[in-house]
Specification:
Length: 204
């Protein structure tokens, strides 16, 4: 196995697919789901991305030639997509993603095009073209599997702790609640005494 080629493929796909950058989108799209559903969504998103990347790794040149799309055109489209996203982040004009109940967000937009987008597809095709020997091909396969395992683990363990229902209760200790209750009862007795005193003065 060509370890240098494996490291170059893994690092390139890691930078392009950006697993840590997917965490906010993943949490926003699956915020109202349970932990089991979020874990299932993470697995589905990683599996969808893996399927798309493997498809273009095996049949990428044929698919592009059938569609009449050249590899430089894919490179330009990926660059433009990154430019648009970067400008939106710089100008703060991004809309916060919201969860949709009747759509499988694990496949679209998480699996593709967020993870398996034009940049990752073009990089995979280029690496397939440059893999001339069996060790390089094996390194390419291992790198693709490794990056998707990383993506799954990052999304799977990015689940934040749910808000404890007990946190909505009064956070004061029981002793503070008792003392507050005593103060309230004492204030009520004082108000009753003042009212009785006023009535006694009126009658006199």
């Amino acid at each position: 196995m060509d370890w240098k080629f494996l490291a170059s493929v893994y690092l390139a796909l890691f930078v392009i697919m950006d697993p840590p950058g997917v965490i906010p989108v993943f949490l926003a799209l699956t915020a109202r789901r349970g932990s089991a559903a979020m874990a299932r969504s993470a697995l589905q998103a990683a599996a969808t991305s893996f399927g798309v990347i493997v498809l273009f790794a095996v049949l990428g040149d044929r698919i592009l030639s059938f569609l009449g799309i050249t590899l430089p055109a894919m490179q330009v489209s990926g660059g433009l997509l990154l430019l648009v996203v970067s400008l939106e982040l710089l100008t703060g004009r991004t809309d916060e993603p919201t969860e949709v109940d009747d759509v499988n967000v694990a496949m679209v937009p998480l699996g593709t095009p967020l993870l398996a987008g034009p940049g990752a597809i073009v990089a995979t095709i280029l690496f397939v073209r440059s893999a001339d020997t069996a060790p390089e091909t094996l390194a390419l396969v291992v790198a693709i599997v490794a990056i998707h395992v990383t993506i799954y683990l990052v999304m799977r363990f990015s689940v934040v702790a749910r808000a404890d229902p007990a946190s909505d209760r009064d956070p004061r200790p029981h002793t503070d609640r008792r003392s507050a209750g005593r103060r309230d009862r004492g204030a009520a007795r004082c108000r009753r005494r003042v009212r009785l005193h006023r009535r006694a003065r009126v009658t006199t």
